[in-house]
Structure formats: structure tokens, C-alpha cells
Amino acid sequence: MAKKPVPTEPIERPGPSDISDVAVIREMRRAAVWIGMALLVAGIIVLSQPILLIIGGMVFAVILDGGARLLGRFLPIGRGWRLAIVTLAGFAFLGWVFYFAGSTLMGQAEELRDVVALQWHRLMTYAVEVGVMPEGGAGLQSFSNQILGGVGRLTTAVSTAIGAIASILVIIVIGIFIAAEPRLYDKGVAWMLPVGSRARFYEISDKVGFTLRRLMFGRMIGMLFEGVMTWVLLWAGGVPMAGLLGLLTGVLAFVPNIGAITSGVLMVAVGFSAGSGEGLWAILVYFLVQNADAYLIIPYIARRTVDLAPALVLAAQLLFGALFGVLGLLLADPIVATIKVALEKFSETNEPQV
Length: 354
Known about the structure:
By secondary structure, the protein is mainly α. It has helices spanning about 20-45, 50-70, 80-100, 100-130, 140-155, 165-180, 180-190, 195-235, 240-250, 260-275, 275-305, 310-325, 325-350. The longest helix is centred in the middle third of the chain and has 42 residues, at about 195-235. It is globular, with a radius of gyration of 28 Å. The relative contact order is 0.09. Mean pLDDT is about 75; it is low at about 145-165.
């Protein structure tokens, strides 16, 4: 007689709440990675300004650290004393600029804004006369107002710097603290990494710091060169406001590409306000200073630091400027240099052994 089939119980499979299953753990890890990336992007967007202030403080710390190291080649004293000397020297220079040259530069800043506005309207009038721009168009008026508004904000930056005093103080304080004990903060970051990855992190951190020190030193040399040469040559050619134009050229030299174009427009506008001869001399000075910087200073610096493609730097400036404003524009160059050096160093440590 055949036996009746015994009913079998359905096989129970682990559900989403059973985290002991290997497949569930694998899926949870994948989900955690995507959720973490989404939270990271959202956090960067929401906290972009504080993050940029911290990055600015780190860049300022690199400048202080580089100055202390350079001073150590001549003064056999402790690092703390060298760092204090560099910091006090920087504050002394800023004090000299604000207290001894501030009143003159502020007055010239107002005059410069009026001169640029007048020259812009003359240029637009000439464009209408030759038929390049439509006469009385609303688009022309809107475009003119936007350009002049941007120029006005730029030329009054010296007199309205108090509006950014809080951010500057935060950057200075963070920079001084990091420069005082840089290894302490390196160890703090390394502590959050796996033990096997800490040696690689220290190696990459040292290489990035070395590159940024030289990059910032070269940038300051370029700023000093452009500012002083512009001031001397414009003063020799009788161009008005040579001191202010030299200061603006030196400051704007911190922002490659965009800074040079902006300072050149201001220089030429002021030159032609004094006469055609002064305008042509301003054009000559601009090309002379920029070519000397581009073919002498920058190549020498690039060979000793990191060679960044101009198109890459300009694209990063446009992107960071659009996303994070003026602070992103200023920090685009060191951020790109840091990413490039870190990726190159990381790829070297992961090359397959032949």
C-alpha cells in the first residue's frame, strides 16, 4: 500500500530585519555607502561657508608655517618664536597699510570707481555709434548696470572690508592654531583612519603640505612682483592712482587668470581717463608685467611646486566661484593643487609591483 506524502513545511528565509544573514549585511553596507555619500554632498552644500573658512585657515596656516621654516634658515631659534615673528610681521604690514596708507587709498578707491564708470559709459556710447550695440536697448542698460555694479563692488572692497572682518578673524585664528601644532591635527585625522592606512596618510599629508608651502610662497612672490612693478611703472608714466592700482594688481594676483584680467581692465580705464598717452602706457605696462610674470615667475614656481594647467585652474575658479562665492574663487587654486597632489601620491602608493 503506497504511503501518503508527508506535507513539508515552507522554507523560511531571512527577512529585512534579520541582520545576521550575509546577503542582508552586504546590502546594508551598499546602502550605507550611498546614504553616506548623499549625506556628505548635502553636508558640503549646507556647510559650504564654514568648510571654506576652515580651508582658508589651513591655507593661512601653510603660509605661516612656510614663513617660519624659511626664517629658520637664518635664525637658529625655536619654532614658536619664528612663528610669532612671522605672525607679528604680517600684522605689522597690514597695520601699516591701513593706518598710514588707508586714507589715501580709500579716497582713491572712490575716485577709481567714478573713473571706471565714466570710461565704461564712453565705451558703450562708442559701441552704439559704430553699430556694435543697439541704441537705447534694455539689454544694453541691464548689461551695463551689472558690469558697473561688479566693478563698484570690486573697487570699494578696500573701504568696505569691515563687512568681512568676522570671516577674516576666523581664518586667522584657525590658521595660527594649526600652524602652532600642525602634527597634532595630523594625528587627530589619522586616528580616525584604519591603522594600516595611517602611514600612507602621513606621507600624503607631508607631500601636500610641502607643495602648498611652495605654491603659496610662489604666489606671494608673484603678488609682490606684480604689485611693485605696476606701481613703479605707472608712476613713472604719469598714470594717476598708481599706488592703488599697484595694490589692487598685487592683491588680485592671488587669483590667477581672472585677477590679471580684472586688474588690466582697471589699469587701462584709469590710464585713458588721463589721456591717450597714459592709456597706451598703461596697456604697455600691463602686458610687460603679465608677460614677465607668466614667462619668468610662474614657470619657475611651477617647476618647483605643482604644474597646474591654466584651463583646469580657470574651470575650477568658475565652478567654485559659482558654488561658493568669492571665498571659493580665492581658494580654488590651492584646493585643486591639493587634490592633484593627493591623487598623484595615492596612485604612486597603489601601483602594482612588477
